[in-house]
Write the structure tokens for this entry.
Amino acid sequence: MSPTIHIGGLQAFSSIDYPGELAAVVFLQGCPWRCGYCHNPELQSRQAEVYMDWPQLEAFLQQRRGLLDAVVFSGGEPTLQPSLVQALQSIQAMGFKTGLHSAGCYPERLAAALPHLNWVGLDIKALPQDYPALTTTPRSGKAAWVSLQLLLASPSAHEIRITLDPSLFEQERLPRLLQALHQAGVNNLALQQLNPPPADPQGQQKAQLQRLLNDFSGQFSQLILRGP
Ligand code: SF4
């Protein structure tokens, strides 16, 4: 039986969504959170039109064998999909590596998917108590930080990402977040700028970022700033 997943879009070819590999990116429909800076708001609703069904995706991927290395499930929040594990198993059976972009909304579902994932990019948006202001969802911070612990304890290759919402530049939130991630055991961290970046006429955010990169570079194996 085909996995039941709601595909909202497809990027046939990407060199930036799975480190070092050429990947197709499959955007899965639906997300339980409502971040103000969401990069794909059209994927938030669970009700939207289906872009392609599973047999169509499988037929597309069969044609790409030998041309692509990996398939990345992105969103939306891919762990929302009830058949994500079955979908990952099918992708691996076709000979592709599997990747996932997640905000960690559903720790138990992430735990079930991890044995079938070769690489995960996990968004950590803030310290747990600061999440509801960003996601408009109670207890979202706890879910994301439990997901972080699960990912760090798994053998899956991964990258932790922070999206640089302007609120993170207030009240020392960003340095406190980096310190907490270091203490949690994160090694590979990317700071991702919004697209377009927020106004910074005095250059204060730029200066704070430069200080952070200098101050924390010794605490992570990789600490990068990723622009839009
Ligand atoms: S968790 Fe990600 S997909 Fe969901 S609303 Fe926030 S930014 Fe958008």
